[in-house]
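Example S7 (C-alpha cells).
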C-alpha cells in the first residue's frame, strides 16, 4: 500500500530560531478524516491514597522546590504548557479549556472510546521516543543546546533533574530495582505465568523475589529462567506496573505526591520553555492521530521498558500511548519490535514510522514503511499540518 509522494524534511529547515516548516507530506488515498483532538495537557491531578506516599524530594541546587500548598485544592491543579499559536484556519476546531464538570462528563467518551480490534486498525504510527517526542538525552550531552543556541548549563541542569525524577519514579513505584535485570519487550510478555491472584494485600517486599544470587542469574539472554514460583512473582510485578500505569496515566501528580508533584510541574514548565514547546508540538500530532477511530500510536524505544514507562508518565504521554502499545527494543532491536507490531495489526494496515535515528529509518526502509524524520520542532509542526490536512 503506497502512501504516494513523500518528501522527507531536510536539515535546512532546522534552525536555531525554529523558522520555517519542512515540507514532508504524505499524499494518497489512505487519508482518514480527523475529528477534534483531545488535549493531553488537560490532566486532572487528584490525590489517591494508594502509592501516594511522599518520597524525599530531590533538592536540585539550581531549582528550589516549590513549596506545596497544604490545602486540598492543591491536588487538583493541572500542568498547562505555554500557549502555542493555532494552525491558521483551524482556530474554530480547537476547543477551549473545559471545566471540571465538562471534563467528567465528556472526557472519557472522547479520549477512551471502546478501542477497535487490532485487526480493524487502518493506520499505525510507530514513534521513537527520545529526541523525537521528548528532548532528554541531547540535554545531557549538550547536543541540543549547541545545535539550537540554548544555554548549555541550563540544558544539562534540566536534563539531570529529569533523569533523577525518571529513575526515582522507576525505583520507588515501578519495581525497577527488581526488574532491571529482567527487562521485557512488552508489559504482557510474562503474563502467562500470572495465576491471577488478588494482589490488593500482597507484600512485594517480603515475597522472596530477589534470590541470594541476584535476579540477574535468573534472567539470561533473550528469555527468563527461573522456577515456577519465581516466575509467578515476576509476573505479579509486571501486572502491578500495568495497574499503576493505567491508574495514574492521567494523574501523574497523584502518583508522585507532594512535594515531588510541585517539583515535576516546575520541571515540565522549564523544559518546555527551553525546548521552544517541542513536547507540546509532539502532543498535538499524537492527539490528532488518537482522535481518529481507526488509527493508533505505538511507541518503540531503545530505553528499557520500566524507565520508558517512567518517561512516558513524567512527560505526560500516558493519554497518547496505552501501555499495550509500548515496546522496548533494548534486548531485541527495533526491527524485531517492528515485526511484532506488524504481526499484531496485520498486513492490511498502513505503517508510518516517525523518528530521528538511523536505526528506525533503516528498518522502516527495509520494511517499505514511510519514514518521517524529526530533526527539529518545525518537522513536528509539518507533521501536525499533514495530519490536519488529511495528507497523512
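Recovered sequence:
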Amino acid at each position: 500500500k503506497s502512501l504516494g509522494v513523500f518528501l522527507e524534511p531536510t536539515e535546512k529547515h532546522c534552525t536555531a530560531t525554529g523558522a520555517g516548516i519542512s515540507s514532508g507530506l504524505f499524499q494518497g488515498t489512505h487519508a482518514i478524516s480527523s475529528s477534534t483532538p483531545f488535549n493531553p495537557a488537560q490532566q486532572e491531578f487528584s490525590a489517591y491514597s494508594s502509592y501516594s506516599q511522599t518520597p524525599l524530594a530531590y533538592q536540585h541546587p539550581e531549582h528550589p522546590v516549590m513549596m506545596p500548598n497544604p490545602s486540598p485544592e492543591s491536588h487538583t491543579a493541572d500542568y498547562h504548557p505555554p500557549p502555542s499559536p493555532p494552525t491558521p484556519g483551524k482556530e474554530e476546531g480547537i476547543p477551549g479549556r473545559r471545566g471540571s464538570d465538562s471534563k467528567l462528563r465528556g472526557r472519557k467518551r472522547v479520549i477512551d472510546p471502546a478501542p477497535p480490534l487490532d485487526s480493524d486498525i487502518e493506520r499505525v504510527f510507530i514513534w521513537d521516543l527520545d529526541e523525537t517526542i521528548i528532548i532528554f538525552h541531547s540535554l545531557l550531552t549538550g547536543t541540543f543546546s549547541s545545535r539550537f543556541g540554548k544555554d548549555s548549563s541550563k540544558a544539562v541542569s534540566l536534563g539531570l533533574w529529569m533523569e533523577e525524577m525518571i529513575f526515582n519514579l522507576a525505583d520507588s513505584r515501578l519495581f525497577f530495582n527488581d526488574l532491571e535485570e529482567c527487562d521485557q519487550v512488552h508489559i504482557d510478555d510474562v503474563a502467562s505465568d500470572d495465576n491471577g491472584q488478588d494482589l490488593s494485600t500482597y507484600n512485594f517486599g517480603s515475597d522472596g523475589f530477589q534470590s541470594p544470587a541476584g535476579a540477574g542469574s535468573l534472567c539470561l539472554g533473550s528469555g527468563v529462567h527461573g522456577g515456577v514460583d519465581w516466575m509467578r512473582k515476576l509476573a505479579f510485578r509486571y501486572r502491578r506496573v500495568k495497574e499503576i500505569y493505567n491508574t495514574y496515566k492521567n494523574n501523574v501528580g497523584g502518583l508522585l505526591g507532594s512535594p515531588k508533584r510541585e517539583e515535576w510541574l516546575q520541571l515540565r514548565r522549564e523544559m518546555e520553555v527551553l525546548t521552544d514547546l517541542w513536547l507540546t508540538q509532539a502532543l498535538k500530532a499524537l492527539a490528532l492521530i488518537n482522535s481518529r477511530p481507526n488509527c493508533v500510536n505505538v511507541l518503540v524505544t531503545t530505553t528499557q521498558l520500566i524507565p520508558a514507562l517512567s518517561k512516558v508518565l513524567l512527560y505526560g504521554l500516558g493519554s497518547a500511548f496505552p501501555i499495550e502499545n509500548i515496546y522496548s527494543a533494548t534486548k531485541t532491536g527495533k526491527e524485531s519490535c517492528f515485526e511484532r507490531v506488524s504481526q499484531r495489526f496485520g498486513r492490511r494496515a498502513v505503517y508510518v514510522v516517525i523518528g530521528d535515528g538511523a536505526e528506525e529509518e533503516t528498518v522502516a526502509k527495509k520494511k517499505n514503511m514511510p519514514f518521517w524524520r524529526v530533526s527539529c520542532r518545525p518537522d513536528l509542526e509539518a507533521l501536525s499540518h499533514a495530519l490536519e490536512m488529511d495528507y497523512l
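Notes on this example. The longest helix spans residues 152-173.
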